[in-house]
Specification:
- The protein is α+β, with helices and mostly antiparallel strands.
- The protein has 5 helices and 9 strands.
- It has a 5-stranded antiparallel sheet, with no helix packed on it. A 4-stranded antiparallel sheet has the order 8-7-6-9.
- It is globular, with a radius of gyration of 23 Å.
- The termini are far apart.
Amino acid sequence: MDPFRIFLPIFICFMSGIVLWSLIASFIRVRQSHSSWLQTTGRIISFGINYGTPGISYKYEAQGKVFTGNKFTPGPVALYPKGSGTSFPKSFYLNESGQLRFSPGNSVEVFYDPGNPRDSALVRDMTSGKGFLLVVPVIAFFVALYVYPAWFKAHVKVLLPAGFLAAGLAVFIYGCTWMRRHWQTRSFPSVRGRLLKAEAVYATGGGESGSGYSVSVEFEYELNGCLYRSQQLRDLPLTILKSSRQGVERQVEKLRADPTPEIFYDPAAP
């Protein structure tokens, strides 16, 4: 029997299992949070967008102890809520008057597990399922490949160029969204902030070519009486292009030389 015909259903079951586990686990966690989790009032410590992904930290008191949470939803994987995607601003982050809902220092409702008070969330809702939009078509493709192998072999000369064209178009569209963001940041106003951390870190990307050094930075800045914190060094996520240790250390020294750097921010989403 063709080894490919053996491996393919195993791969399909594996990928489908991951998707189903994520959905079922998220659903169970949300149901548990509605039925048994308790509610208390906490306070936002920091909120920011790091390369399109929202990040938050908040403190709350439970069972006589103070805990720090960093999840929007119960989980188990994604930390941002359904409908938010990874872009900003979205209606979830804004209150009825259009102001930022999670401004640092604001009070916020926190839900926590009484059996494990460290486990908390700000909303009892399913996590965003937009990541599955990439996984499901892949699974569907391999299912079709397994069911209709003869058709794919007969049309391989057409399917291969079409596949490369579709992949190239997807990369182009993705790149255009980041370039649009880059041009938007050129008109951002600025304010002086405070550097909290700047260091060279080594990251392993699963292979020798994917490993290397990059800059890890954290800073805070104040606007309209609210303190914001971010780890976003550039307007684009260029840290995926790893640098040499010497080059990164020079960047770190340059950052540390200015403890009050100029911070550029989006006035619609500080």
